[in-house]
Specification:
Elements (H helix, E strand, L loop, with lengths): L8 H17 L10 H20 L4 H27 L5 H25 L2 H6 L3
Length: about 130
């Protein structure tokens, strides 16, 4: 792959999400530092990290696999944000802001997955 990871909009927005999640989790109760705070931060970092690692791999198939891992981390993060909301650790407008950024990143990762989907998978999917 010739594209540098810094050129990928999905990675750029995932990095923005990491910053947002760190600010968001700073508002969680201190007793959640090793629980929900840590989980949410690791999920957010995992999204950007998987995009970067996949982009640095040797094949579209490997890139696709790492994007799938990023998508899994997106769903983890989405769930964790909703848990924080249900436990009333954060205000709804703050939750909405994070969920909107999560959704932006999810759409970009999904689009990137379609762009790099290996030909074998396309044939299997009937494309």
């Amino acid at each position: 792959m010739s594209t540098a990871v810094k050129d990928l909009i999905a990675w750029q927005k995932a990095m923005d999400l990491v910053e947002l999640v760190y600010r968001f989790t700073a508002k969680l109760p201190k007793e959640e530092l090793y629980g929900l705070t840590s989980q949410m931060r690791r999920s957010a970092v995992s999204i950007a990290s998987n995009i970067a690692e996949g982009q640095g791999r040797n094949s579209k198939g490997e890139f696709y696999q790492f994007l799938g891992n990023a998508r899994g981390s997106i769903e983890e993060l989405r769930t964790q944000v909703l848990i924080a909301q249900r436990l009333r650790f954060v205000l709804d407008p703050e939750v909405q802001k994070v969920l909107e950024q999560v959704e932006r990143v999810a759409r970009l990762v999904n689009g990137l997955m379609q762009a790099v989907k290996p030909k074998v998978l396309r044939a299997t999917a009937g494309e």
